Amino acid sequence: MTRGTLTLRSRLTLALVSVLGLSLAAFSWVLDSAFRRALWAQFDVRLAEDAGAVATMIEIRRDGSLEFEAASLPGFEAEDGRSYFEVWTDQGAIFARSPSLGARLLGRLAHDGMMDGSLPDGQHGRIVQMKFPPRREWASTLPVDTRVTVVVARHTDDVAGAISRLRLLLWGSGLTAMTLASLAGAFAIERGLVPVGRLSARADAIDARQLSTRLPTDGLPAELQPAVVKLNELLARLEASFERERRFGADASHELRTPLAGLRSTLEVTLSRPRPATAYREAMVEALAITTQMGALVESLLALSRLDRGQDPPAAEPVALADLVDQCRLACDSRFRARRISFENHVARDLVVHTDRERIRMIVLNLLTNAADYTAEGGAVVVQCDAAAGTWLEVADSGPAIPEDMLEKIFDRFFRADTSRSTGGDHWGIGLALVRALCQTLGLQIHAENRRDGWVVFRLEGARVQDGCARAMQDGSTRDDEDTATALRGAEPVTRSRASTGPRPDLRDRVP
Amino acid sequence: MRVLVIEDYPPLSRSICQGLREAGYAVDAALDGEDGLAHVESAAYDAIVLDLMLPKVDGLTILQHVRSRRNPAGIVVLTARDGVADRVKGLDLGADDYLVKPFAFEELLARVRAVIRRRYHVPEGILRIADLEVDTVARSVKRGNRTIDLSGREYALLEYLAARQGQTVTRSEIWEHLYDFASDPSSNVVDVYIGYLRRKIDRGNTPALIRTRRGIGYVLGETS
Predict the structure, then answer these.
(1) For a 10 Å CB count at each end of chain B, is N or C smaller?
(2) For the whole model, what pTM was predicted?
(3) How large is the ipTM?
(4) Which candidate, B43, B96, B33, places its Cα nearest to that of B65?
């Protein structure tokens, strides 16, 4: 298992065991070495004391000869004793030796001091060699110049055994403590992670159909609360987004079903019996018109879907706004003419903005088509730019007014102002939603409002565009402003009893 | 039989109306809910083809309105929404049938026929009056073993009389169920068609099935 796939439980347990193990090992090592040193020091002290004790048994006589007064020394007596000594004279002769040596020799060391070495019985031991002045029993101010060399040796297996036992005890108890502590730690971790387990089980059960589920925060450890709150927020966003997608899909299929039904019904009824050629022609014209509408709807849906996915960043190219408005007007000329709606373009001719040409074209075209379809017959549409008021583009039509509570809703996808719609025919509310989505990608805002004079204004605003506007306005703005003002004053709102006929007859925007 | 089509998408409305007319129905079209309600109020329809998503007044409101007035018209709901909840709601509010767009026109025709049969309590597609048989599916008529050829209008008249067999049917009722608002028949057209029918059905046959209730109207078959 790689580190990346270790569970939190394993990681915590591993960390706990490692830290515990290292601490215990260090503690044991310190204790072990301290005890070992103390035991050896004690051993050496006893060895030196033994050497001193042997030295006190040697007496020098007045004649300078040495005498050994054997006294009982435990450990040195029996032949199988564990301690040995030899006393050597300056002349290099063995003067006295412990009974435990028997016939064996201990030997002198190369120099005085303590060292480890092999004992006469072949076993390992520790040897000390010291020089002492022999004891004298008469008073003299003269120093004793004679020295005896005392060599004392002893088996170390007692000490080594004690150290081994101590080690065993230390490491054994350490290991036991570590095992117990690890088990207890693992258990505690297990218990501590129970809420995480519960959370993950709840999260596991969440799929696209259960996005309304929220993870419980009650009884959760404080450390987990923020994460769970964030997760719940994420779930809420996901739910909203899924719901939007679901509704969009349902609405889209719904919007396509009606024209599809019209197409199928038209073709089936036409084919149900033999007819004159003109009847077939009429049916084909109808079918073509329906497929054109459906095609436009599908295009808009795809455009919206692409915008939703945030693909394709907007381009920034110079666009002559007035020309663009003219082109869009031409594209929906038949609609304007069919409903006898007059059109005026007051955008400054030299106004150039840097933006995405295709997107701004779709925005303007949708706004103009919308105006052409829903302005009362015989009305007027005026497009202008009013940089002074912070507006880039304004598409104003002579109404009728849109009910105030629907001014925002008309930008919703598939919004239908059913109760106020006249028998239009095209009924897919996607154009204005597309306009708003396009505006968002260009950093623009679009709003609709009813002016006091009864006109309806779709206003496009945006800081970037205002700059562009202001730049262009510096040259020809005065004239344009005046022109626009004149035009607006001159464009008499078509007097229709907007108040008396009630709300705008049809709010549904149309796919160009 | 007279049918009202309330559908706001003009191409669909046009084709449904054309298809129904060609199937022998008198058809009126309403392109929004308000217009639909006005139609419902002003004529006796045998069936209503009703779209649910309508401007001005939605289809469910119309459905409720029609049923609250105890209007016996059979209602076929057209909708683009095919969720179970939508169907249940429509049927709960008194729709007789439910058709999801897009549909086969033949199916719509069959459903309209079915709701009209139900409206006149005719369980089968064949109406029998003595030895006269009116097959409402094949739109054919037989008396004894003889097949009778009828024009569209004659058939429509006979079908209506047959659906109400044994009952006295007034001229204005016949008028209302055979002609839509677009037709402009002369005032004695009902009597003229009754004459045609009599010639084709009763001539040379006994008993005579079509009888006149003087000053009131006509009755087909034995009075119930």
Answers:
(1) C
(2) 0.61
(3) 0.86
(4) B33
